[in-house]
Structure formats: structure tokens, C-alpha cells
Amino acid sequence: MSSNPKNVRMCVVCRRMQPKQDLFRICRNDDNMAFVDYSFKACGRGAYVCKDIACVKALGNRKKVSKSLGGPIPENLIDQILDSIGNS
Q: Whole-prediction pTM value?
């Protein structure tokens, strides 16, 4: 784990602290569309989730995630994240 606390974030599903690079950041844009922020620099509120299949699959069932992002996460976004895990 990184020694710099600025580079450590918590997964909204499993609540483990991990380096930012080991997580996905999910944000909402001005049009209220959810997307994965691969650059970690998009404006707005974001939620971090582990690059673990179990955590990603649990995203849709968590009210905390919906609350922190201001709405539910679409299934196609979860599928997109699962595809990127499978390709890495």
C-alpha cells in the first residue's frame, strides 16, 4: 500500500483502503450519465470500487453507491467494467 495518504482511497463495496491505481473511479457528468473515469481527473463526485469481480458485481445492489453518485449505476456500465477486468 502507498505510504502517501493522498493516493489511498476506499472501495465503496468492501470498504478496503487501496492505492488509487488499484481502483476504478465512477463519476457522473453534467448530463447525469455515469461513466468510468480512467484518468482520475474528471470533475464531480466519484465513487471508487476495487478491480475485483465480486466488488464490481455488487455495485448495482449497493444503496451507498447510488447515494454517493446521485442515482443508480446502469447495468451496461457494470458490464463495461467487468469487460475491462477480463481484458487486463
A: 0.83
